[in-house]
Amino acid sequence: MNSTERNDVASGFGHIAVAYAMGKTTSSEFHTSRFWWLTVACCLLPDVDVIGLVLGIPYEHMMGHRGFSHSLIFAVMVGLLVPRLAVPHLPFRSRSFGVLVLYFSCVTMSHGILDAMTDGGLGIAFFAPFDSTRYFFPWRPLIVSPIGLFEFFSAWGMGVLWSELLWIGMPVTFWLIGLKVMRRVRGLPG
User: Fold this and answer.
1) Is 71 helix (H, G, I), strand (E, B) or coil?
2) Residue 136: which residues within 8 A CB-CB, separation 6 or more?
3) Max CA distance (Å), the chain
4) Nearest to 134 by CA among 188, 185, 79, 61
5) What is the pLDDT of residues 34-87, one digit of tens each?
6) What distances in angstroms separate CA 70 from CA 89, 115, 123, 181, 182, one per listed residue?
């Protein structure tokens, strides 16, 4: 099976690791269980488009896999809606609300960015609905991940996990260690 015939995503493990690192970068005042559940939901949400494959929407269609739900506009729309769910009492015009809009937009956007670094598929429609062109980054070190639990227990699945450990896990670990050291030096919590 070549990389354009495989299920073409970074694994959920990689998406969640990046979102976790992003969340740890925010102020600890936001770190409620609701915040973390919404963080995970936002980083995985773009793959809701796989439902379209079951419904007969062609992969290359704007609403197909890696189409509109992987776009920057979609990420911003999610980012505008989710802060109200994360912290219901937060005033709409407050600085903290704006920080959460930016945060949840970036977490959602991180999904398409990671997928654009995989070695398969048709690319990401970053500028949908205005442009249906699919893009990859020039550097694509991530092995395309299988969809489904049992495929992870194959040579392909193990290759994906090693690839993500190297290209996602190690940078995330270094980032989190750096954050911890920086906060300790500044006398900040966390």
Assistant:
1) coil
2) 116, 117, 118, 123, 124
3) 55
4) 61
5) 999 999 999 999 999 989 988 999 999 999 999 999 999 999 999 999 999 999
6) 29, 9, 10, 34, 33
The whole model's pTM is what?
A: 0.89
For 104, counting Cβ atoms within 10 Å of its Cβ (0-12 exposed, 13-18 middle, 19+ buried), the class is buried
Bridge partners (DSSP) listed for residue 145: 9
Contact status, residue 100 vs residue 87, Cβ threshold 8 Å: yes
- Return all residues near 29 (Cβ < 8 A) that are at least 6 apart: 96
CA–CA distance from 8 to each of 5, 64, 118, 160 (Å)? 8, 13, 7, 11
What does the pLDDT look like over 102-146, one tens digit per residue? 999 999 999 999 999 999 889 999 999 999 999 999 999 999 887
Contact indicator for 10, 118 with CB cutoff of 8 Å: yes
Domain boundaries, the chain: 12-186
